[in-house]
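Fig. S4 source data, part A: sequence.
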Amino acid sequence: MDDEIQQISTLEQLLDRLEASTREARQVSLEMIVEAVGSRSFGPLLLVAGLITLAPLIGDIPGVPTIMGILVLLVSGQLLVGRRHFWLPKWLLGRSVESGKFTRGIYWVRRPARVIDKLLKPRLVMLVHGAGLYAVAATCCLIALAMPLMEVVPFSANGAGAALTLFGLALIARDGLLVLIGFVLMLGTAGLIIY
């Protein structure tokens, strides 16, 4: 399935895949989400972690930003050491949320997805390949390490979720401009936490 999943190139395609793969479930586990996007898909996994952290009905659940931080740290760390097929522990994959909340979270994201997809295009592609990709992965590791602290600093997890969303979108659409915006957002969120 990973070959098919590599073709995800828009936010709407990702949302369609998540919705289709979780439609019949009572609980939506992280394992179901990873299976939907593929365990070799760094961009979509980042995007999913960012969207879950941003979604008001899901990301506001205590512990969710930390769980997403662990996911991002594991995936980004494995990318940095050269792995292309990501391993995640069973206890993490077993984490789940009630399907109604998940569906409402997807609905919340679906409206702006069409507009966002129209703005995406390949540009500054050197920022999403090679050294640029490793810089994104290292930055995501830093964000992930800070996410448990962000649970106690109001709105900072939203900044992290937005940065992860931008990085994920940048990688699936090959849009380096979003990488630059993500770096600026990450620095702003870090400034907020330090302040």
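Fig. S4 source data, part B ends here. The CA atoms of residues 21 and 36 lie 6 Å apart.
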